[in-house]
Amino acid sequence: MAKPRVAVHKFTSCDGCQLQFLTLEAELLTLADRVEIVHFWEASSDIGPGPYDVSFLEGSVSTEENLERVREIRAVSQVVIAIGACAAAGGIQALRNRHRHEDFLKAAYPQPEHIDSLPHSTAFSDHIRVDYALPGCPPDQGELKRVLADLLAGVRPRVPDESVCME
Ligand code: SF4
C-alpha cells in the first residue's frame, strides 16, 4: 500500500513552527517509515510536487506568490492543517494591517519599490478551506505529536476545539 504523502509548506514566517517539527526527532524517524515526506522546506530544498495526502502550512499570506501557491496546494491536498499563530491570524507581520502599507515599506526597506508584498498579512482560512488548525507561537509539540499519531492511525486529528474547520 502506498504511504501517505505529507508536505510541510513554508509561507511568510520565521520558520519556528517547522523547527518544532524538526525537534520531534524520534517521531520523525518513526514517521519516515510510515509516510512519504515529499516536501519539507526547513529540512530539504527538494520540492516534491503534489498531490498530497496531508499538507501542513506555516506562516501567513503576505505576497501574491503566497496567495497563488496556497491555492495550488489546496487544490492538490486531501487535508490541510494550518500550524501556528501566523497561519491562524496573520502573525506579527499582520501588525501592518492597521496602518498604511507604504509607510511600513518605507520604514523597513531602503528601496521599498523592489518589495513585492500585499497590503495585509492574512490567515490561510481567509483564502482557502482549512481543515484543521493548531494554534500557538509555535504550536505545542505535544499537540503536533498527537496530530501526527492520529493521522497515521487514520482517525480525525484531535486539535483544540476552537480551531477546527475554519472557513
Ligand atoms: Fe514563527 Fe510563531 Fe509564526 Fe510559527 S507562529 S512561524 S513560530 S512567528
Task: Tell me what you see in this structure.
- The chain is built from six helices and five strands, in the order E-H-H-E-E-H-E-H-H-E-H.
- With 167 residues, the protein is of the alpha/beta class.
- The chain has a single domain, classed as NADH:ubiquinone oxidoreductase-like, 20kDa subunit (Rossmann fold, 3-Layer(aba) Sandwich), CATH 3.40.50.
- It has a five-stranded parallel beta sheet, with helices on both faces.
- Strand 3 (52-58), helix 3 (64-75) and strand 4 (77-83) form a beta-alpha-beta unit.
- Bound molecules: iron/sulfur cluster.
- The site of iron/sulfur cluster has 13 residues, from helix 1 and helix 4.
- Iron/sulfur cluster (SF4) binds at residues 13-14, 16-17, 58-59, 84-86, 91-92, 137-138.
- Keywords: 3Fe-4S, Iron, Iron-sulfur, Metal-binding, Oxidoreductase.
